[in-house]
């Protein structure tokens, strides 16, 4: 399988950059001159680290822009700002080893995500500048993140301490996520699914909090493109051959009365594959359509996330969207490995936003799921006849399952450096891992009672031991969006126990058994309370314990977090959040977000 995928990508054109601002004591006559090289070296070291470690979703290294000169006053700050605007900088990091003139050197762009690293050294007061500059940002209503190393370093060292590097990288990851969303689109393919409030797309939230527009198409667009063959016929043939070789069919669980004919199933495969091509083209466009004389359709909607309504107006008459959702959300297809397209089941735009957040923070695929059931240890024994000894399930587990599709990365067949299951950026996935994901997945004729017009559902179970973060973005009347976060692990049940529990829901759907990490407090007193306090029927599962990144990103967007199990020492928010309270951080987060309002406009 080739490393470079030929599919159209949403991540083309100019991508946001990180601006590095080397800031200096402006006093000429000995002070500034002695600091010029040290300050610029600090900027270069940071830029190199960011470029070496971080990548855009398309796999390219992130780009950094360093100010042409050290910034000692307003004129140089203005020149740097102009350079950053022309270069497309979305994230600014100010670095300095010394005292500088705070309000004269600060970044004043209200939409730039800001941080300041004040060098911890005793020769020059970098920490004093950091405190003064952060106070200025707080006073002017321009939130900024403060970065200060724990250990004193000698002046002139080019080494970036591990604690500083971690904060810089996490800040940059989250800031770039903000920049990558700005100016893009969410594509609502259809409307409300089965009365689910999350699929009643709130364009104001996308515009004011994420800087994105909402594009809407009626599902008859799929009918028209199917009937008129408005897709790449050569790619369809290639995809159909790949599916036949790599997507093994599993058991048909329909009754004899509701089973569909082989001819019907084959037709459902054809339509499902065409729907995947059409959905992708609707999101990001396809130059092949222009060659067919379809110039308008070739452009797409500039969408980095989308939702497919499906039930019921579509699925009562046409094959469901399970294949398109599963394969587009996966990090590979018939063309090879590639960045996943973010597509939400049932057009749940709020879950799509959560999937988008997770993808931009980790560059990996995301699992869309129902938070279906809490299984206590006693209930598991009653249903399966077995008592589980795994310590992680002592308090019970949560059943994450989607009604048909989920990214094949969610099988957990990819591994990290220690051999533990994970979901990786597409450029780190091996061909063997692609094959393992495909072999761990079976495709089943959809249950006819649910989907009268057919379609194909993915079935797999996630490998146990995958560090994971479950999140949900909710929309609250009078408050706006608010985020929930639960870190934990995937659980692998014995085969007979898994089957006993899974069959009670639907054996044709993909399952992840999840055990949240408990703290003994609040909503994390028990796994039951996590389920009981969840704000909606859907959730997103992201690989890794990345709740701290979600918290940082949420603060940048001014979205409060009202439920999480992230240790306090891992939480990183703008320094001004402390002014809203240091004892109850959750309440302070709500007050700060309310005070500043959405990033791109007042509520």
UniProtKB/TrEMBL annotation:
GO biological process terms on file: D-arabinose catabolic process; L-fucose catabolic process
Taxonomic source organism: Pelagicoccus mobilis
Cofactor dependency: Mn(2+)
InterPro entries: Fuc/Ara_isomerase_C, Fuc_iso_dom3_sf, Fuc_isomerase_C, Fucose_iso_dom1_sf, Fucose_iso_N1, Fucose_isomerase, Fucose_isomerase_dom2_sf, Fucose_isomerase_N/cen_sf
Positions of the catalytic residues: 346 (proton acceptor), 370 (proton acceptor)
Annotated GO CC locations: cytoplasm
Class of the enzyme per the UniProt entry, highest EC level: isomerase
Gene Ontology molecular functions: arabinose isomerase activity; L-fucose isomerase activity; manganese ion binding
UniProt domain L-fucose isomerase C-terminal: residue ranges: 400-564
Residue ranges of domain L-fucose isomerase N-terminal-1 in the record: 16-183
Subcellular location: Cytoplasm
Pathway stated in the Swiss-Prot or TrEMBL entry: Carbohydrate degradation; L-fucose degradation; L-lactaldehyde and glycerone phosphate from L-fucose: step 1/3
Protein name: L-fucose isomerase
Family of this protein: Belongs to the L-fucose isomerase family.
L-fucose isomerase N-terminal-2 domain sequence ranges: 184-363
Keyword Isomerase set for record: yes
């Amino acid at each position: 399988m080739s490393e470079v995928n030929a599919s159209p990508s949403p991540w083309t054109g100019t991508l946001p950059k990180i601006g590095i601002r080397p800031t200096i004591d402006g006093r000429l006559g000995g002070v500034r001159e002695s600091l010029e090289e040290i300050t610029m070296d600090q900027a270069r070291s940071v830029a190199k680290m960011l470029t070496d470690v971080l990548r855009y979703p398309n796999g390219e290294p992130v780009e950094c822009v360093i100010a042409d000169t050290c910034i000692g006053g307003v004129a140089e700050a203005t020149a740097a700002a102009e350079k950053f605007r022309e270069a497309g900088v979305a994230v600014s990091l100010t670095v300095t080893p010394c005292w500088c003139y705070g309000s004269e050197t600060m970044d004043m762009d209200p939409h730039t995500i800001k941080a300041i690293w004040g060098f911890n050294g005793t020769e020059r007061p970098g920490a004093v500048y950091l405190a003064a500059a952060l106070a200025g940002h707080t006073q002017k209503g321009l939130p900024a993140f403060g970065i200060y190393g724990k250990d004193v370093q000698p002046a002139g060292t080019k080494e970036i301490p591990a604690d500083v590097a971690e904060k810089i990288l996490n800040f940059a990851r989250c800031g770039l996520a903000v920049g990558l969303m700005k100016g893009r689109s969410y594509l609502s393919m259809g409307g409300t699914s089965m009365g689910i409030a999350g699929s009643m797309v709130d364009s104001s939230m996308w515009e004011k909090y994420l800087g994105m527009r909402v594009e809407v198409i009626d599902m008859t667009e799929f009918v028209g493109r199917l009937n008129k063959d408005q897709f790449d016929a050569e790619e369809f043939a290639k995809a159909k051959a790949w599916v036949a070789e790599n997507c093994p069919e599993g058991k048909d669980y329909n009754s004899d009365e509701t089973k569909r004919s082989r001819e019907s199933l084959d037709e459902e495969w054809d339509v499902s594959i065409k729907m995947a091509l059409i959905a992708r083209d609707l999101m990001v466009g396809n130059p092949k359509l222009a060659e067919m004389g379809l110039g308008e359709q070739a452009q797409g909607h500039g969408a980095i996330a989308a939702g497919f309504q499906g039930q019921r107006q579509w699925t009562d008459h046409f094959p469901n969207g399970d294949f398109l959702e599963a394969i587009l959300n996966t990090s590979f297809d018939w063309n090879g490995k590639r960045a996943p397209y973010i597509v939400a089941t049932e057009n749940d735009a709020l879950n799509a936003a959560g999937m988008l957040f997770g993808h931009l923070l980790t560059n990996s695929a995301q699992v869309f799921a129902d938070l279906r059931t809490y299984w206590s240890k006693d209930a598991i024994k009653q249903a399966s006849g077995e008592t589980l000894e795994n310590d992680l399930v002592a308090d019970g587990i949560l059943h994450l399952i989607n009604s048909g599709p989920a990214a094949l990365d969610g099988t957990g067949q990819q591994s990290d450096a220690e051999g533990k299951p994970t979901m990786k950026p597409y450029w780190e996935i091996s061909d063997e891992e692609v094959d393992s994901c495909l072999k761990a997945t079976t495709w089943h004729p959809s249950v006819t009672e649910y989907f009268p017009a057919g379609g194909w559902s993915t079935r797999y179970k996630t490998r146990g031991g995958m560090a994971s973060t479950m999140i949900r973005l909710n929309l609250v009347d009078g408050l706006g969006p608010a985020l929930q976060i639960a870190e934990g692990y995937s659980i692998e049940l014995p085969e007979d126990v898994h089957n006993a529990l899974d069959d009670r829901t639907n054996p044709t759907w993909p399952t992840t058994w999840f055990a949240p990490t408990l703290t003994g407090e609040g909503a994390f007193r028990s796994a039951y309370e996590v389920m009981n306090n969840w704000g909606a029927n859907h959730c997103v599962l992201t690989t890794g314990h990345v709740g701290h990144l979600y918290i940082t990103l949420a603060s940048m967007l001014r979205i409060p977090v009202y439920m999480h199990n992230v240790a306090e020492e891992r939480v990183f928010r703008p320094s001004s959040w402390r002014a809203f309270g240091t004892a109850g951080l959750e309440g302070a987060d709500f007050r700060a977000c309310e005070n500043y309002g959405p990033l791109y406009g007042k509520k």
